[in-house]
Task: inverse folding
């Protein structure tokens, strides 16, 4: 089984192939190693890896997996194999990074923007967060409305594709 | 302590939520007082309503319509037959109109008088009071027009701090480095102050170079008597929000403690302060200290003082509210060292943005000399509407090094899944050499720690962790819905503690902060 996982800013590719009873051949980003895995209840695994033996505790929320590995914690997001490159290539949609209220909209459709320019201000829990242009370009669409409550992940501003951007 | 004066009560409404509501309920029970919880629509079934036994819904999710809704809270207190109201911290804890409404309803407000809250809550008035009590204040300036504030800033010399007159807890504060940035900072600070505190007034303070934040816990009887429970140090802050606090301060020796506590008690006496309060100071590397502000409430970080002095600050608040006498100053002793870390639902890898959702797994450390003040268990929700504090972990030791060692282990043993928290940030922070040596200032985290932390947290996860998540997917381990119901996981680290420490065994990958 091959799966793709978002790990911070990068996508990791993991292939798991059963070898024999409880034994698996695991390939992470091209590096292969053998793992002995044993279930410990509904949400816990015991793993023997070349680096040592670990208890992993896993829970899922949507596509997100919370993984405690030994005493360390990681969050991975399952990426559908077909879509995994699409997000990085488009890069034009700027999403609300947290739930909040839109307090200012500083650009309109058609405006040219420079890298780092603040586009929309969000306020949550008395904190202000500025959504900035990741690169120079032109605003294609503005979805944010002042005073609106938005959920995390909602698209606020769409930039034109960066084919013509100088930056 | 004899009970007289404002009178006894048997039932107390807790006008708050989360960990502090749970913590207050615990002391009320110990004192044979009945706790009454309140909750918003977003907090139905929340832990603070379960521990209280009696809970009343006060309004919709938005804080303005629920936890900040004075008439709804008074109605709830009346209908439950409560004799007193404890405000906790945050929300209405420093709202004079709320304290006045409670007293007008014939109930006891567990806190200062409305006049004291109003006067001390206005940072400008508090600075005047400090100056009258001969307590040094941070050089600063007030003016109503932006032009006059600009001139004053030039005179003070940049950098300056822009602060909300009615602010607190670091909210509405901005550092400005030059005249060019002042106009935008004033505009933004005034707007935030207006929305957060209902008054857009701001003032300026000279920005001190590399100060430490030291505060004195005071108690006043409302009749001019006041004592102190020594100091705390809360220098480890991120954007003026405290992250790790300790008692006593590693930067304070006996001679400095004498001067700090004398100044703080003088202020409390001058205000004829009633209740538990905190006098905050900035301490310069030279040992010079300046009054910052008074917080007229229980502090988030009160547990470190409780552990070192052996005094329950919530109990003391209640005893003062019942008109009792203060403990005698010589009876206040302290021993060892306590350190607290604040666990927030925020994403340290993404500019600490607040997080929300359902906690799939929560397990707290079970270890000697570790206290956890939590507002959640497995299965509970972290709503988007409120401050993102989830829990506080506090450890005690005979000395600072052993307290820090216990806190480090306690953080390592903590499990929180389902909502992203700052746990990894805290684990790295307590391991930083500067923290172990207590060599830091209020901007050290942002200036020195965060750049290093950001670089390390963005390192790739070890292959073993990816093998684990992929194998879990294949074997159906930890799938959505497979987790126990609320509390079923019950904080069980289980018999299967990690068999190997992954530190240092994973090649190019290492734990952020480990040296």
Result:
């Amino acid at each position: 089984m091959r799966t793709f996982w978002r790990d911070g800013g990068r996508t990791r590719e993991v292939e798991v192939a059963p070898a024999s009873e409880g034994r698996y051949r695991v390939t992470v980003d091209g590096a292969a190693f053998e793992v002995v895995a044993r279930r410990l209840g509904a949400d816990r695994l015991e793993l023997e890896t070349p680096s040592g033996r670990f208890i992993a505790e896993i829970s899922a929320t949507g596509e997100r997996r919370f993984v405690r590995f030994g005493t360390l914690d990681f969050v991975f997001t399952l990426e559908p194999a077909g879509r995994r490159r699409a997000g990085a290539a488009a890069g034009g949609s700027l999403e609300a990074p947290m739930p909040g209220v839109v307090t200012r909209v500083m650009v309109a459709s058609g405006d040219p923007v420079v890298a780092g320019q603040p586009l929309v201000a969000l306020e949550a829990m008395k904190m202000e967060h500025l959504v900035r242009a990741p690169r120079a370009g032109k605003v294609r669409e503005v979805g944010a409305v002042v005073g609106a409550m938005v959920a995390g992940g909602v698209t606020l501003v769409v930039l034109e594709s960066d084919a013509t951007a100088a930056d | 302590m004899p009970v007289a004066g404002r009178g006894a009560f048997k039932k107390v409404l807790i006008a708050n939520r989360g960990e502090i509501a749970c913590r207050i309920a615990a002391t009320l029970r110990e004192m044979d007082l009945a706790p009454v919880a309140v909750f918003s629509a977003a907090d139905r079934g929340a832990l603070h309503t379960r521990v209280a036994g009696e809970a009343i819904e006060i309004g919709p999710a938005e804080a303005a319509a629920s936890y900040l809704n004075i008439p709804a809270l008074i109605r709830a207190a009346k209908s439950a037959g409560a004799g007193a109201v404890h405000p906790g911290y945050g929300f209405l804890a420093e709202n004079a109109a709320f304290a006045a409404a409670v007293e007008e309803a014939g109930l006891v407000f567990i806190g200062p008088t409305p006049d004291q809250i109003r006067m001390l809550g206005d940072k400008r008035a508090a600075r005047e009071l400090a100056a009258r009590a001969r307590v040094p204040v941070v050089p600063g300036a007030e003016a109503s027009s932006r032009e006059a504030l600009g001139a004053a800033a030039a005179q003070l010399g940049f950098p300056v701090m822009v602060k909300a007159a009615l602010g607190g807890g670091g909210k509405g504060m901005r550092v400005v480095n030059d005249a060019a940035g002042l106009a935008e900072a004033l505009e933004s600070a005034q707007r935030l102050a207006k929305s957060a505190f209902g008054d857009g007034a701001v003032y300026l303070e000279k920005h001190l170079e590399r100060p430490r934040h030291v505060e004195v816990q005071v108690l006043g009887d409302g009749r001019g008597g006041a004592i102190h429970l020594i100091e705390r140090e809360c220098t480890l802050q991120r954007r003026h929000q405290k992250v790790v606090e300790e008692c006593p301060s590693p930067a304070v020796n006996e001679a400095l403690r004498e001067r700090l506590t004398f100044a703080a008690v003088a202020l409390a006496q001058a205000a004829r302060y009633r209740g538990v309060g905190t006098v905050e100071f900035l301490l310069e590397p030279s040992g010079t200290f300046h009054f910052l502000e008074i917080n007229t409430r229980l502090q988030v970080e009160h547990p470190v003082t409780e552990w070192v002095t052996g005094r329950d600050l919530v109990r003391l608040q209640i005893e003062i509210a019942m008109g009792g006498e203060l403990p005698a100053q010589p009876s206040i002793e302290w021993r060892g060292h306590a350190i607290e870390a604040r666990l927030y639902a925020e994403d340290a890898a993404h500019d600490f943005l607040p997080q929300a959702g359902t906690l799939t797994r929560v397990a707290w450390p079970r270890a000697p000399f570790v206290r956890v003040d939590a507002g959640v268990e497995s299965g509970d929700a972290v709503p988007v509407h409120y401050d993102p504090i989830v829990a506080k972990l506090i450890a005690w030791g005979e000395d600072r090094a052993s307290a820090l060692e216990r806190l480090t282990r306690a953080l390592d043993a903590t499990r929180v899944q389902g909502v992203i928290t700052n746990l990894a940030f805290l684990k790295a922070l307590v391991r930083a050499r500067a923290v172990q040596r207590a060599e830091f200032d209020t901007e050290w985290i942002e200036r020195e720690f965060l750049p290093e932390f950001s670089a390390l947290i963005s390192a790739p996860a070890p292959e073993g962790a990816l093998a684990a998540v992929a194998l879990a997917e294949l074997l159906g381990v930890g799938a959505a819905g497979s987790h126990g119901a609320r509390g079923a996981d019950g904080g069980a680290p289980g018999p299967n503690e990690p068999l190997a420490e992954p530190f240092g065994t994973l090649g190019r990958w290492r734990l952020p902060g480990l040296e």
Observations:
- Chain B is about 35% helix and 25% strand.
- Chain B touches chain A through 66 residues (CB under 8 Å).
- Residues 1-5, 483-515 of chain B have pLDDT under 50 and may be disordered.
